[in-house]
Amino acid sequence: MRKLLFALLTLIAAPLHAEDWQSKATERDVVLHDFHFGTGETMDVAMHVTTLGTPHRGADGRIDNAVMVLHGTGGTGKQFFRPQFADELYGPGQPFDLAKTYVILPDNLGHGGSSKPSMGMRMKFPRYDYADMVAAQHRLLTEGLGVTKLKLILGTSMGCMHAFVWGTTRPGFAQRLAPFACNAVEIAGRNRIWRKMSIDAIEADPVWNGGNYTSPPMQGLRTAADLSLIAGANPVALQDQLPTRAAAEKFLAEREAAAAKEPGDANDQIYQLDSSRTYNPAPLLSNITVPVLWINSADDFINPPELGIAQRQAKQMPRARFILIPASKETKGHGTHTWAKFWKADLLKLLATKP
What we know:
Elements: H1 2-8, E1 26-36, E2 42-52, E3 66-70, H2 83-89, E4 102-107, H3 130-145, E5 152-156, H4 158-169, E6 177-180, H5 189-204, H6 218-232, H7 235-241, H8 245-261, H9 266-274, E7 292-297, H10 309-313, E8 320-325, H11 344-351
Parallel strand pairs: 3-4, 3-5, 5-6, 6-7, 7-8
Antiparallel strand pairs: 1-2, 2-4
Helix pairs in contact: 1-6, 1-8, 3-4, 5-6, 5-9
């Protein structure tokens, strides 16, 4: 599923790397001992994290230049090395200038190099949710990295929702929030339906075998990947670039073949898709009094703008600004969130805002 979404973003050629940002990064694992899940289970959890830049300590001895960037469902912190994000943000004079900024890129619980079902427990792994994921991020920052405040949380997709969880349950820890590509309501309607369809497709594949498979349940994974493609696509760009039936079917076949080579772990995907089941920051939005830059895109299937949810909810936060990026041949559907050219100027304005 994740591989197919990422492949979709390359339909329009990305710019070449100006820098090898990964070579400038530091990676580590932080073990959170006796981590308490919302289910009541307790276990040691490993959080993998990548950092860029150097922490700076202010007069009070606390790190004062940290920003945390949070990935979406199925992603990892390393996705933020892609040129459309990194080349726009990390260089001299850019919003996250690494000479001045300590950038923290976690692999969130259930993702990447952090603890997840595929590391041995399979479907016996605790059924984590967004509250657990944010709690793990908090312990990673405070216990693992010594960070007790953030200049900013920028979150994309699932990370966007995590930003709202941070703002409503730990108000003020982050001095600014930049949630991109989500709404701040319970995952319901079409958004929950396509997630549940993907989960059901995997679990209905006989090869899945209750999570105890010996080879990937490819039938279920293919259906989940196809649903993810539709959910993440920009219909304007697809219509422009695939104007015939033959072109559209060729594109689909190529993307499915690419996804089949690296299908990902089925149990991990079930957990990732289901972890949003308890998300609902709506009743607590008034807790968020820090500056907020909330950006969605008009071509986002997952967060359809015609619902008007974000436009209404932004008014519940005294310092929130909502922007809807118009759909065009250049936008990237749900994936517009990680193409910084669409929102970098607004991010600079947010960072210049007094916390």
